[in-house]
Amino acid sequence: MTIPQIYDIWHTKNAAGVSRLTWIMYVSAAVVWLLYGIQLKDKPIIISSILWVLTESAVVIGIFMYS
User: Residue 42: which CATH number?
Assistant: First the structure.
């Protein structure tokens, strides 16, 4: 769901109808998982959380730029 959202926002340069709060909460949850993975020193959790933080942040940045 994230990759199509990134494409829509950045390709059309329009973020109308995309919830800013929802995507900020997604990024926040990914950051919490990242911190948890770091605490456990669990590489799969760390790597996947970094990827989620990056992709979801791309949506949030697009929302702020194009809304």
Answer: 1.20.1280.290
Q: Do residues 30 and 49 make contact, with C-beta atoms less than 8 angstroms apart?
A: yes
Cα separation, 53 vs 15, whole angstroms: 19
* Three-state secondary structure call for residue 42: coil
Number of folded domains that form the chain: 1
pLDDT bin (cut points 50, 70, 90) of residue 49 is very high
Region 33-54: what's the mean pLDDT?
98
pTM, rounded to two decimals: 0.90
Helix pair angle (2-12, 43-66), 10° resolution: 30
Whole-angstrom CA distances from 10 to 25, 34, 54, 62 are 20, 26, 15, 6
List the domain range (segments joined by +) for residue 8. Answer: 2-66
